Amino acid sequence: TGGRMEPNRTHKDFDYCYGSSSLGSCITAQVARRLGYDPAPPPAFVQGWFDRGHQHEEECLAAMDNDWKLGDRQMEYTIDCGNRVGVIIHIDALGERVGERYQSYVIECKAPGTWAKFERAYKTADWSDPLMARYAWQVSAQMVATGLECVVACYDGAVRTFGIEVPPFSVTAISIVGDADVLVKVTSALPLY
User: Fold this and answer.
1) DSSP the chain
2) What's the rounded Cα separation, in Å, for the pair 180 and 147?
3) In this structure, are residues 90 and 63 in contact, taking their beta carbons and an 8 Å threshold?
4) How far apart are the C-alpha atoms of 110 and 73, rounded to whole Å?
5) How far apart, in whole angstroms, are the C-alpha atoms of residue 44 and residue 66?
6) What is the pLDDT of residues 3-21, one digit of tens each?
7) Taking every pair of C-alpha atoms in the chain, what is the biggest distance, in angstroms?
8) Which of 62, 67, 72, 110 could potentially form a cystine with 115 if both were Cys, beta carbons 3.0 to 4.6 Å apart?
């Protein structure tokens, strides 16, 4: 059980899947989804953040093209959490620095403001900011699923990066958080509203 990394499995390999970006988010919302409730669409201003994030990802990866060989954009990986539950991961890209052979990285793009906050959180191991904690879970899932180190990048006129050699959260932690049956048991007393 828990933690077998397998690229390119499909959603039908699991009875239930979480997206890596939902790890570390509201447990009640995760359980509600697991119990069959559909999430409400995000408010327009939140959807605007998502849209700007996708646009920034494209700009960042384009700016990295001179110094990086990039591929496998939006490649899907999975982590099998046991109990036919999986975590689905879509990576921004895999890449290697031009001139650096035999070392590939998961590339994760963040907007400049959140990139700086994430770098501080990583360097201090302070995951008290809920968004930074979600990023830590997301990057951990990417690293566990691919078996690679991560380079977190942003573009603000120039590409800035920092590296993560060891996932902030282990495969065991990811499997526990991703195991919906455990989440349902833990939160069964919580109201779903």
Assistant:
1) ---EEEET--GGGSSEEEEGGGTTS-HHHHHHHHTTPPPPPPPHHHHHHHHHHHHHHHHHHHHHTTTEEEE-TT-EEEEEEETTEEEEEE-SEEEEETT-TT--EEEEE--HHHHHHHHHHHHHT---SHHHHHHHHHHHHHHHHHT-EEEEEEESSSEEEEEESS-SS-HHHHHHHH-HHHHHHHTTTS---
2) 24
3) no
4) 15
5) 35
6) 334 444 556 777 777 777 7
7) 55
8) 110
Residue type, 51: D
Amino acid at 160: R
- Specify the amino acid at residue 77: Y
Which amino acid is residue 5, in one-letter code? M
- Amino acid residing at 66: N
